[in-house]
Write a structure and sequence with these properties.
The structure holds two protein chains of two kinds. Chain A is mostly beta strands. Helices cover about 5% and strands about 55% of the residues of chain A. Chain A has a 22-stranded antiparallel barrel. In chain A, strands 9-16-17-12-13 form a five-stranded mixed β-sheet. In chain A, strands 1, 4, 7 and 8 form a four-stranded mixed β-sheet that branches. A five-stranded mixed β-sheet of chain B has the order 7-8-3-2-18, with no helix packed on it. Classes of the chains: A mainly beta, B mainly beta. At the A-B interface, helix 5, strand 23, strand 24, strand 25 and strand 26 of A face helix 1, strand 1, strand 2, strand 3 and strand 4 of B. Strand 40 (about 675-680) of chain A pairs antiparallel with strand 4 (about 70-75) of chain B.
């Protein structure tokens, strides 16, 4: 009888519970997660219900949508660099609820303190091989000349190499520098560098955050093989006018932000300029009487960022982004030549965000981007100029739809019209006796359609799968491709996740460069009949552990990437003013593989990460087009291949006024090509005998390993008004002479001029460089 | 009329200079010029088998001379090595074979060293093809073929002084000639001051890729003073020799330029390294006044 009553009680309880569940409705909570400081949206912020083990991530505008059962819920809202907020909410209907997160510290150079939410979020998401970086993170770390550079900070992450000492170029998992898609608020930036790669075009004052995708690419991204660098700019403070800026060793910057209409719209304007030229002109002036003194050319760069947003009702918001930057280099030679070299990007984006319902919203953007360089040379009445540019107009639309709590769909289309001016030459004279012009222009149209679904099959299993259809045409040459994408996460335990991903990528535009580095004179070129699109596939698997009560996240990823139609150029290729550039291309294959270990800590007074990668990158260009290919068709390591790469980054908040930072980098030596043999050439006439180097193989020599420690300190001042700090940096703290390149020098007999001996010389670029920057905000 | 080849060359050099001066300018800013940023290092290069090196410029009216040497590991000490076991045979357009004598010496006009020499002054006209055959007793065998290009005449030489006074008063020089429209043509311009035995004051090569059939104008910067004696030589060269010159320049530039890709030398001969060509040139002598 007692057993019967127990069963009955249990049955009644079960039925009531079931009825109760059936009676509970689902409602959608939606809104924005914003920074309390400037009201800008926080893309990637997490809104979670820890008790239910569920949550969502805010989109690129900071918008989130979370469907829950009715009732009381404890919400945790978190984002890197912001204090995690918990909020209890009684959900009785679908409702909008926006959150404002306070910055982790109100200092200018604050130590990042965040809740464990973001590490848990990284553990739980299906997305792998991604690095998120906020401008606040980058501002803390020591920087070359004190110039904060987000791309250089990304180089401290495993799987990312730089292109040489001090450069901001990215080489991601064996990909070359032109295989990165740089997006500034959805618009492509073709040349992300100032000063021949030493600084990036992204002014940290204007940037909110950067996401770097190294693999497992979501279906909405395409067009490059190796990485996506998605840069989001800051929105202005919609409540009050503010001014911030900094005075540095080589540049100064200023940002103004404020409301357009209070709480309806805001703007941000940022600008910076270097003043190398001020110093070099003084040096030239001091030496103008020195015999044989060769004046230092003028060089400076400047850039402006602008962002504005405006709400039109409850469901619509407009965003306008602009960027304009130029590098200027020039000099007047004693021989009478005037030389001016100007290059830079111009970018504009207009985006419309429309919320149909909390579960359905649309982002549509129209963007225009242009990269151009122009070199002008003058002598007396004669003038010569060489220029090149790529110009895009693009329209894209992305629709996010969450039909239920298990699925999140994303659909999108995009169309881009390219205009490639691969070389414009002109020569003229003021007397009209010379007037020559040459120009090669190609058109190109690129389009894509994609669909993806994030499917929560169970608490343990979550999948993200998608398909991207891309097409490209240039003249009568057409290409199309299907690019499948997929990733999966399986939770072995609440603190252990297994992940895997696959992505196929196509690249229809190619960088024409035989410099081995990104230079301003590199030309973008479309896929054509004889220049096929580049293609790559990447598989990656990983495991993540949340350790130390959620304070640490340990991740290990293994990847293998293989690529076809990789591009190189014939020896001695004529890349300037060549109307038949197709004939200069060489095509080959590439593959890279490696293991990346990453331990990060983001809570407490001491934060940072340790990254280690073991990797191989290889290329092969067989004999073709009447030549022997590259390296006689044999496999070789490109210059950015590094076997070992260790980075250690630490940030410590000593007290309320002082933050200390340090970073250490160790990488294996870079491959380089050295001449193995030589012969002497007398030539037809002349008394000089020249040694001519012979290079039988490419990149067979490894330079010495690279290692460097940087130290930094942020000291908060106490001004009467606003905030200010002094940021100290010491680049290359122990003054390591890292190899930049090696060359062979020739010693000559002083009387006869005959070669006597040869020696190998190693050149280093930067010794220890201390710097200080004054930052202010009011 | 075409002035921009020279300017293009200037441009290329400026770009190269720019790419190297950027970091240097940065260094200057931090006072790093005083730092020693270069050092000697030990480099172990793999074994490099020696190849025969041939340098031979045939010229109508001149007794043919040829220099044979061999390649060496780059960092080895330069030691004069005379290869005594090399035989050289020149095949004339008529099919006649001429064995060169091994008579090491120095050309009194060009100051160049040579190892082998023909018997008689060369008889050649544009379009004539010669063959070269060089062998040694170790089985190394170098072969080459060269055709004499037509002669292109310098139409005019024009110079103009700047407005400066005294020592700073300099003139630039323009060299004008007509490019044939029917062919792809390649040129080398050399300007010597006072004597062709010295290194040329200006020396560059170019093609007519963008200016086929036009009146070409090549120029210099303001660099010549009053009473300078200039020897202006315009070579009409064939494509293999043009490529050889370009590749030698590229190979030399790659040593010391971190942005340059290493380039292999494109010899005009097979089986070894070097150049075999027939010179066709027009030379004019002027005094700048």
């Amino acid at each position: 009888m007692r057993l019967y009553l127990s069963v009955l009680q249990f049955s009644v309880f079960f039925l009531l519970s079931a009825l109760s569940v059936q009676a509970q409705q689902r409602f959608t909570l939606s809104g924005y997660v914003r920074s309390s400081a400037d009201r800008s949206g926080l893309p990637g912020a997490s809104v979670a219900v820890p008790a239910l083990g569920t949550g969502v991530t805010a989109d690129s505008t900071g918008y989130y949508s979370l469907t829950l059962l009715e009732g009381r819920h404890q919400l945790a809202i978190s984002f890197i660099g912001y204090v995690t907020q918990t909020r209890e909410l009684n959900l009785t209907k679908s409702q909008r609820q926006s959150f404002s997160l306070a910055e982790a510290s109100n200092q200018l150079g604050e130590v990042v303190i965040e809740g464990t939410g973001t590490l848990e979020q990284k553990l739980q998401t299906t997305q792998m091989s991604v690095e998120h970086l906020s401008a606040r993170d980058a501002k803390l770390l020591p920087a070359l000349f004190g110039e904060v550079d987000l791309l250089k900070t990304l180089q401290l992450k495993p799987g990312v190499q730089n292109g040489g000492e001090g450069t901001s170029g990215l080489f991601v998992r064996g990909g070359s520098a032109d295989q990165n898609l740089f997006l500034l608020d959805d618009a492509v930036v073709y040349n992300p560098s100032h000063l021949f790669g030493l600084f990036s075009v992204f002014n940290a004052d204007a940037i909110q955050s950067v996401d770097l995708y190294k693999g497992g690419f979501p279906a909405q991204y395409g067009g490059r093989l190796s990485s996506v660098v998605d840069v989001k700019t800051r929105e202005g403070n919609p409540q009050k006018l503010g001014i911030s800026g900094g005075l540095g060793l080589i540049s100064s910057r200023l940002t103004v932000e404020g409301p357009i209409v209070k709480d309806k719209g805001s703007f941000t304007l940022s600008g910076r300029r270097t003043y190398f030229d001020v110093f070099t002109r003084q040096i030239n002036k001091m030496n103008e009487d020195t015999e044989d003194y060769s004046p230092i050319p003028d060089y400076y760069f400047y850039d402006f960022n602008a962002k504005a947003n405006y709400k039109i009702g409850q469901k619509d918001q407009l965003f306008l982004t602009g960027y304009y930057g130029r590098d200027v280099f020039g000099f007047n030679s004693t021989g009478g030549f005037n030389f001016d070299f100007v290059w830079g990007n111009t970018v504009g984006v207009l985006r419309w965000n429309h919320v149909f319902s909390p579960k359905l919203f649309l982002n549509t953007s129209f963007s225009a981007t242009r990269y151009q360089y122009q070199i002008a040379n003058k002598l007396d009445q004669f003038g010569f100029s060489l220029s090149s540019e790529i110009q895009d107009y693009a329209l894209r639309s992305d629709l996010d739809y969450q039909p239920n709590e298990k699925h999140t769909l994303r659909l999108g289309v995009s169309a881009t019209n390219h205009r490639f001016n691969v070389g414009r030459l002109s020569a003229n004279s003021t007397d009209g006796s010379l007037n020559i012009g040459s120009e090669t222009i190609y058109g190109g149209q690129e389009a894509s359609v994609y669909a993806s679904d994030n499917f929560k099959a169970s608490e343990e299993l979550q999948l993200d799968y998608g398909l991207r259809l891309t097409g490209f045409q240039s003249g009568s040459d057409r290409f199309a491709a299907l690019e499948p994408r997929g990733s999966v996460r399986y939770s072995l335990t609440p603190k252990t996740s297994l992940k895997a991903s696959y992505a196929m990528m196509y690249q229809y535009v190619h960088l024409v460069s035989n410099s081995g580095a990104s230079l301003p004179t590199d030309i973008w070129y479309p896929s054509r009949l004889n220049v096929k699109p580049q293609r790559s596939q990447q598989v990656a698997t990983g495991v993540s552990f949340l350790l130390g009560q959620g304070k640490y996240l340990l991740t290990n990823e293994v990847y293998y990437k293989w690529a076809q139609n990789q591009v190189d150029f014939r020896d001695g290729a004529q890349l300037f003013g060549n109307s038949d550039l197709d004939a200069e291309f060489l095509f080959g294959k590439g593959w890279s593989y490696g293991n990346e270990l990453y331990l990060e800590k983001k809570t407490g007074r001491t934060t940072g990460w340790v990254g280690y990668s073991l990797a191989w990158t290889k290329r092969q260009f067989p004999a073709q087009r009447g030549g022997s290919g590259v390296n006689n068709g044999k496999v070789f390591y490109p210059t950015y291949d590094r076997r070992h790469n260790l980075t250690v980054v630490g940030l410590h908040q000593l007290n309320e006024r002082i933050n200390l930072t340090a970073s250490f980098v160790f990488t294996s030596g870079a491959p380089t090509t050295l001449p193995q043999g030589r012969f002497f050439m007398q030539d037809i006439f002349g008394d000089d005998v020249e040694a001519v180097p012979i290079y039988p193989d490419r990149n067979t020599y490894r330079m010495a390993p690279y290692h460097r420690m940087d130290l930094g300190m942020v000291y908060k001042l106490r001004p009467k008004r606003g905030e200010s700090d002094l940021t100290f940096s010491v680049y290359n703290a122990y003054n390591r002479r890292n190899p930049y390149f090696i060359y062979f020098d020739q010693e000559r007999d002083e009387t006869t001029g005959a070669p006597q001996s040869f020696r190998a010389r190693q050149v280093s670029l930067f010794p220890v460089i201390p710097s200080v920057t004054y930052n202010f905000k009011f | 009329m075409n002035f921009f080849f020279y300017l293009l060359q200037q441009l290329t050099r400026r770009v190269r200079t720019a790419t190297r001066l950027g970091p240097l300018a940065a260094l200057l800013l931090v006072g790093a010029t005083g730092c020693n940023l270069q050092k000697d290092i030990d480099v172990e290069l793999p074994a490099f088998p020696a190849q025969l090196v041939v340098e031979c410029y045939l010229e109508p009216g001149q007794v043919p001379r040829l220099t044979v040497s061999e390649t060496a590991p780059y960092l080895s000490v330069p030691t004069p090595t005379l290869l005594t076991d090399v035989s050289v045979v020149l095949t004339h357009p008529s099919g006649q074979k001429e064995a060169f004598r091994f008579t090491p010496g120095q050309d009194t006009l060009t100051q160049k060293l040579y190892t082998h020499m023909g018997k008689n002054p060369l008889v050649a006209k544009p379009g004539d093809t010669f063959q070269l055959d060089v062998k040694d007793t170790h089985g190394r065998h170098v072969k080459g073929t060269a055709t004499m290009p037509s002669s292109i005449t310098i139409d005019s030489l024009v110079w103009k002084f700047n407005d400066k006074t005294a020592e700073e008063r300099k003139a630039y020089l323009l060299v004008k000639f007509q490019d044939p429209a029917a062919t792809a043509d390649f040129y080398r311009l050399q300007i010597h001051k006072d004597s062709i035995s010295k290194d040329p004051n200006r020396d560059f090569e170019l093609d007519d890729r963008l200016t086929n059939g036009q009146l070409m104008t090549l120029g210099t910067s303001y660099r010549y003073s009053t009473n300078d004696t200039l020897l202006v030589t315009l070579y009409h060269i064939d494509q293999p020799y043009y490529r050889f010159l370009q590749s030698v320049s590229d190979a030399q530039n790659a040593n010391g330029n971190p942005f340059a890709q290493p380039a292999s030398v494109k010899s005009t001969v097979e089986g070894g390294v070097g150049v075999f060509t027939v010179l066709s040139y027009h030379r004019r002598k002027i005094v700048i006044r």
